[in-house]
Every structure is written in structure tokens, then in C-alpha cells.
Automatic annotation (TrEMBL):
TM annotation in the entry: none
UniProt region (Disordered), positions on chain: 320-340
Identification of the protein by name: DNA ligase-associated DEXH box helicase
Keywords: Ligase
Regions of compositional bias (Polar residues) in chain numbering: 331-340
Length: 340
């Protein structure tokens, strides 16, 4: 029996014919990287290949690495296997990885979402025989409202806090979510201040993205400066002494996990906004159907439940273990590693 084009190994997803790994979680010689979050782009590989817009992100995170960038849809061949990167819509520079050999096509989605966030290159559906999909929110309970409605609620929350003389502290992971929030905040309400972890990534992404002006919070920033304005910070800042300067303040988290009752209470925030950079249930199902794939491999998230549902629909679906964490890692990050 011929080996599959892509296999799950102890180091990561491996294309043996090319000698290449996709988003490996242990050091390898050659890695193709889908995007810049820490669970997908790890330190220690000898060579990194990724989309050119992801290069400044991973170099910022990982330091001096041997990296090369390609454009969307640009094919490159390794040992007779053709690879290309296509927009995943997850965060800026995020890719799906298409792998083709002798007419057989696999697609590794990485992390992805289908709603155009106005910031990332929108998701592109790719026809394939086998599709590797995340299942971060692979339950019918997850159904996202249009982001326009969510941002309206966020801006109304900020305006109300400003009228009461409070600082609005909004938590979202530093790479991707923070910039998405920033892009859609109503700057007519007030000024936007940022935690250093967020501002560091803003500076990287401003090299190719148009983002509203922000002010980095430093030791010199006064409480009076922040009053009535909005602060963007990673979730790790919640409950830290850093927040003392914000008093009086209201806190909120923007995450897909806010769809669960009790999630806001467990995270001890005043407000929760349901906003995710991953697909909801219908988004996952629609994406898979559009690929035309008959084989689906489900990874991180509610993979068992989701794969069982796909099998009931007649697809050849199974689960595989990885070290990807989806939005759990983004929420739990320390903030030093910009995944948050």
C-alpha cells in the first residue's frame, strides 16, 4: 500500500517525498509555515518557507532565522512535489498549504476563517482530494454573528464607558485579533492606547497594513491620559499590576469562547464579545464542502465530534493528534510571545 502524501509524525505533518514538514512542532531541516502564531511557527528549524507577509512576523518572534517568502499561488517544487500557499483569512500573512504530486492534491488549512475581516487576505477555497482542517469551534453551538454587529457593540460599550469617565480595557491576542479590533474601532470616540506586546506587533504589521494611530503605554503614561479612552491589551495583562494605572476601568474580552455561558465569569471580565479568527460550525462545513475533498483529517479542537459528523455525511473522516492549540493558546499566552 502506497504511503499517503502527508503523514502525521512525532515532529509534525510530513511530506516524505519532498522531505518537508508543514508547521512542525519539533526542530526539522525544512519547514513550510502557515502563519505566525507560536503553536504553528516554532523556533529551531534550519529553513523556513512561508508567505512573504509572514516573514516580518516570524522574524520578529523568532529572531535571526533562515527564512524565504513566496506570494499567493506561487508554485515551488521540492523533490518533484509541488507546493503553493493560498490565503487562509485567519490573520495577516496566514496561509493554507497546497501539496500536489502525480495528480494527487492535499491541502493543509492551518488555522482559517471564511469571514473577510477587512485586514487579512480573504480565505480562498481550494479544490483537493484530502483536506486537513482545524476544529477549534467544531460544535453546532458556535455560530458567529456578522462582525459588523460585534464591532457596533464594542464601540457602543466604549462610548458608554467614556461617558461615565471610565477607561475601556479590551483584551485580544496580540497578533491578529488586536489589529482586527484596532481596524474597526471608532476613533471618533477617543484615543487608543496599547500594551507593549500589542504595539510591538502593530509596528511590524504597519509595514504593509493601514492601521489607526495608537499610543504605546509606558511608565510615563498617566492615569489621566487613559481616562475615557480605550486600551488594547493581551489577555495575560488581565489581573496584573499593570492595570492599576487604568482605574476606574471596565474590562472586556473578544474571543470565540465568549459564546459559552460562564466563559466571561471564569475570565473575570465585565463584558464578553464573541469574535473569533477561526471558523464557526457552519464555516467549517461550508469550507470542507467547497474543497470537494472526500478525505478529511480533523485536528485541534472538537475533532472527535466533528469527524464523526462528517462520517455520518458519508465522508472519509478521521482525527489526528497535533500540538496545535487554536484559540486556547491565543487566550492563554503569556503576552511575551505575541501569540496572545
Amino acid at each position: 500500500m502506497e504511503k499517503p502524501l502527508l503523514a502525521f509524525t512525532k515532529k509534525g505533518i510530513y511530506c516524505e517525498k519532498a522531505g518537508v514538514y508543514l508547521d512542525p512542532w519539533k526542530p526539522v531541516d525544512k519547514a513550510i509555515i502557515s502563519h505566525g502564531h507560536a503553536d504553528h511557527s516554532r523556533w529551531g528549524h534550519k529553513q523556513y518557507i512561508t508567505h512573504k507577509r509572514n516573514i516580518p512576523i516570524i522574524e520578529h518572534r523568532l529572531g535571526n532565522i533562515n527564512s524565504s517568502g513566496v506570494s499567493w499561488g506561487e508554485s515551488f517544487v521540492v523533490n518533484g512535489v509541488k507546493f503553493s500557499l493560498h490565503p487562509a483569512g485567519h490573520i495577516p500573512g496566514s496561509s493554507q498549504i497546497r501539496v500536489e504530486h502525480k495528480g494527487e492534491v492535499w491541502v493543509f488549512s492551518g488555522d482559517y476563517k471564511t469571514e473577510d475581516d477587512g485586514l487579512s487576505t480573504p480565505y480562498e477555497s481550494i479544490r483537493c482530494h484530502s483536506f486537513i482542517t482545524e476544529c477549534t469551534f467544531g460544535l453546532p453551538a458556535f455560530s458567529w454573528r456578522p462582525q459588523k454587529e460585534v464591532f457596533r457593540d464594542i464601540n457602543e460599550w466604549w462610548a458608554e464607558n467614556r461617558s461615565e469617565g471610565k477607561t475601556s480595557v479590551l483584551f485580544g491576542y496580540s497578533l491578529g485579533k488586536a489589529q482586527r479590533l484596532l481596524k474597526h474601532l471608532d476613533t471618533s470616540i477617543g484615543r487608543i492606547y496599547t500594551h507593549a506586546a500589542v504595539e510591538n506587533l502593530n509596528e511590524v504589521l504597519r509595514t504593509y497594513l493601514d492601521l489607526p494611530d495608537t499610543i504605546r503605554i509606558t511608565k510615563e503614561t498617566k492615569k489621566e491620559d487613559l481616562k475615557g479612552n480605550l486600551v488594547l491589551a493581551p489577555p495575560s495583562a488581565h489581573g496584573s499590576p499593570w492595570l492599576r494605572k487604568m482605574v476606574p476601568y471596565e474590562t472586556a474580552t473578544a474571543s470565540g469562547w465568549m459564546a459559552f455561558r460562564g466563559a466571561r465569569r471564569r475570565r473575570a471580565v465585565d463584558k464578553g464579545f464573541v469574535l473569533s479568527d477561526h471558523c464557526d460550525w457552519e464555516g467549517l462545513l461550508g469550507s470542507i464542502e467547497a474543497t470537494g475533498a472526500t478525505r478529511v483529517i480533523c485536528t485541534h479542537g472538537y475533532s472527535d465530534i466533528f469527524s464523526r459528523f462528517l462520517r455520518e455525511k458519508g465522508l472519509d473522516a478521521r482525527t489526528e493528534e497535533t500540538q496545535y492549540e487554536g484559540e486556547l493558546a491565543e487566550i492563554n499566552s503569556s503576552g511575551n510571545d505575541e501569540k496572545d
